[in-house]
Structures are given as structure tokens and as C-alpha cells.
Write a structure and sequence with these properties.
The complex is a heterodimer of chains A (114) and B (112). By secondary structure, chain A is an all-beta fold. Helix content of chain A is 0%, strand content 50%. Chain A contains no helices and eleven strands. Chain B is globular. The chains are: A mainly beta (114), B mainly beta (112).
Chain lengths: 114, 112
């Protein structure tokens, strides 16, 4: 079992561009959560997907959107990139109904906006 | 409100005990967690405690919860160089589908 895998590992984009980050959950997991971790800070919850729908959302603008596919993998899309969007983006997978003792994190995608 | 606070740095000598502290403000938090983040690695769950517990011990790790003061601590006994990492405290509630609220992390520095 490969655990949670995220791609790409690193990405450089220009202000105003759009980016798509990808996440494959751990086998047996059906829920995917996305977090943004700015340098020197703790992760901030962006949103959570279950059954291909956004179930819960943190305090992020509509520029941040996502998708979950029937195989439970997920994408995070960010439009109109700002310099402040530079961060490590973490994906966590879990089984719905289980608390975070069942959540596993990927290694993240480091996004740099220039 | 939801806010989790931690000291940014802790420096200890190899072999000593490390105590990392965390305070939270949401008294309705159901679960409290300690995660470890090493450079280039994802977040690894170390241990967790239910809000109705006072203490939990797991090998070298001891978690203490003072619910009255909303204070959580993680003690690492016999600290080793491999314990060098950033340690995050996080809280979650059942009614938020276990959404995690995180502290800023404490960087543990091991002195030889």
C-alpha cells in the first residue's frame, strides 16, 4: 500500500495563473481533506470531499475549488494565483465516520508563486 | 473560538525529557492530537487523547490534558536525535466531521 500520494511534489507558477494539485488516498479510504501550510505555520483546513461532494469548507475564497473522483482520488484547483498562495499543500485521507486517528497525510505539494 | 497556541521552539539535551506545551480555547473540542513533521515528510500522527481523559502513555510518549485550563502537553522521555522535528498540537470535534484545527508547531532542537 503506497499510502497517500500527492503530485507534483514541487511546482512554480506565476501570479494570475491556475494550478491543479492531485491526491490519491490510502487504499480503503473514501474521504479526502486538503490543508494549506504556510512557512512556519500550522496547516489550515481548506475543504473536505466525500462521495464526490464538498462536505465541509474552511475559510478560503472561491478561488480554491476541488473535485473528488469515483475512485476517491481528489484534485485541488486554485485560480488567479496570488503570491500569498505560496505554501505546502497537504492532502489527508480517512474513512468517513472515523476520527483523525485514521487520517493519513501525504508528503505535500510545495507551491511557489512568483 | 478556535485557537491553538504553542511555543515556537524547544531545545533539550539528548537523553533528557522534552515537554511540549499547547493551549486551546474551544472547550467543546472532543479529541486532541500530537503530530510530528520532519523535513520533507508528511504529518505523522504520534498520539491522541479523548477530551474526557487526563493522561495517556505510549512508550516514550506521555500526554497530559488539563481540561480546566485547556492545556495539553506532550512529554518525550529519553529524547534522541531522531526526535528532532516540528511537533503540532491539533484539536477536532465530532460535529465538524473531525476537521482539524492546528497550532503553529514547536520545533524541537536536540543538543548533543
Amino acid at each position: 500500500d503506497a499510502g497517500v500520494t500527492q503530485s507534483p511534489t514541487h511546482l512554480i507558477k506565476t501570479r494570475g495563473q491556475q494550478v491543479t494539485l492531485r491526491c490519491s488516498p490510502k487504499s480503503g479510504h473514501d474521504t479526502v481533506s486538503w490543508y494549506q501550510q504556510a512557512l512556519g505555520q500550522g496547516p489550515q483546513f481548506i475543504f473536505q470531499y466525500y462521495e464526490e461532494e464538498e462536505r465541509q469548507r474552511g475559510n478560503f475564497p472561491d478561488r480554491f475549488s476541488g473535485h473528488q473522483f469515483p475512485n476517491y482520488s481528489s484534485e485541488l484547483n486554485v485560480n488567479a494565483l496570488l503570491l500569498g498562495d505560496s505554501a505546502l499543500y497537504l492532502c489527508a485521507s480517512s474513512r468517513t465516520g472515523y476520527m483523525n486517528t485514521e487520517a493519513f497525510f501525504g508528503q505535500g505539494t510545495r507551491l511557489t508563486v512568483v | 473560538g478556535e485557537d491553538v497556541e504553542q511555543s515556537l521552539f524547544l531545545s533539550v539535551r539528548e537523553g533528557d525529557s522534552s515537554v511540549i506545551n499547547c493551549t486551546y480555547t474551544d472547550s467543546s473540542s472532543t479529541y486532541l492530537y500530537w503530530y510530528k513533521q520532519e523535513p520533507g515528510a508528511g504529518l505523522q500522527l504520534l498520539t491522541y487523547i479523548f477530551s474526557n481523559m487526563d493522561m495517556k502513555q505510549d512508550q516514550r510518549l506521555t500526554v497530559l490534558l488539563n481540561k480546566k485550563d485547556k492545556h495539553l502537553s506532550l512529554r518525550i522521555a529519553d529524547t534522541q536525535t531522531g526526535d528532532s522535528a516540528i511537533y503540532f498540537c491539533a484539536e477536532s470535534k465530532v460535529d465538524s466531521n473531525y476537521q482539524l484545527i492546528w497550532g503553529a508547531g514547536t520545533k524541537l532542537i536536540i543538543k548533543p
